[in-house]
Structures are given as C-alpha cells and as structure tokens.
Specification:
Layout (H helix, E strand, L loop, with lengths): L1 H11 L2 H7 E10 L6 H7 L13 E5 L2 E8 L2 E9 L5 E8 L2 E5 L13 E4 L12 E5 L1
Parallel strand pairs: 1-5, 6-8
Antiparallel strand pairs: 2-3, 3-4, 4-5, 6-7
C-alpha cells in the first residue's frame, strides 16, 4: 500500500506526501544508464517536468522489501523498496533495462533449492534486445 501511494505521489508531484512516505536520507542504489535516473531527478527536485511516468504494472511484497515493475518511454524498470514497519521507505534499489530476480536467502531457504527465487521480472520478455540479469538477495 505504501509503495502504491508513493507512485501516486510521484506522478502527482505531491511533495508533502513524498516527505511523509520517504526517510529524509533515503539510501539509493541505481543500475542502468545514467540518462534513466528519472526517479532521482524527480525526488531531488533536480527536474520538475519529466515526461517519464512511473506506473507500476506489478507490485509484490516480501517482508520489508516491496518490488515494483513497469515500463515507459522505451525503458523497463524495477524498483526494490525497503519499508519500515511504521510505513516509511528507507531504501530504494533501481534497475533500468535489467531483468531482476529476487531470491530469499537464509536458513529457511537453502541455496541449492531450484525454487529459491521468490520473484522474477516479467516485462523484460517484451524487450527486443538482450538485457542483463541481476539477483537481489533478501
């Protein structure tokens, strides 16, 4: 719910709502071409009029990690948000034109299991080019 509210606030440019949902010093990791740092430019105020819209086509939660996937303006994107129990977002990992697999690691998920992934990008199959693939361990 918090992550969906975040995208609504981003697309509406609702700064007050963004301040309520995001930790002031959000930890950020980005993988992709620098020209696709749309989210960073919007959230930092670097640019206010970006044509890019973040409209997730899929959102899935795994404990404190919430993954959203979407596409727009010729780019596929995946965001992995870390949400505190109080509903504040503390971290985002952003992937552009990259296929992502989220894998659970730990005592309850042996690495040798063939079902050790809990989520995989789906939109990358629409791309008409080869995309790098990454694994995010949670």
């Amino acid at each position: 719910v918090v992550v969906r509210e975040l995208y609504e606030a981003i697309n509406a440019r609702d700064v007050a709502k963004l301040h309520r949902l995001l930790k002031p010093h959000l930890e950020w990791r980005f993988h992709g071409p620098p020209k696709h740092q749309h989210l960073k430019r919007l959230l930092t105020g670097e640019e206010e009029t970006i044509a890019f819209k973040f409209e997730p086509q899929e959102v899935a939660a795994f404990g404190s990690t919430v993954v959203a996937e979407g596409c727009g303006l010729g780019a596929l994107w995946v965001h992995a948000w870390t949400v505190e129990p109080e509903g504040v977002i503390t971290q985002v990992r952003e992937y552009f034109n990259t296929s992502l697999t989220v894998a659970r690691v730990g005592a309850d998920s042996p690495a040798s299991s063939s079902d050790d992934h809990v989520w995989q990008s789906r939109l990358h199959r629409r791309a008409r080019k080869s995309l790098p693939g990454l694994v995010l361990a949670i």
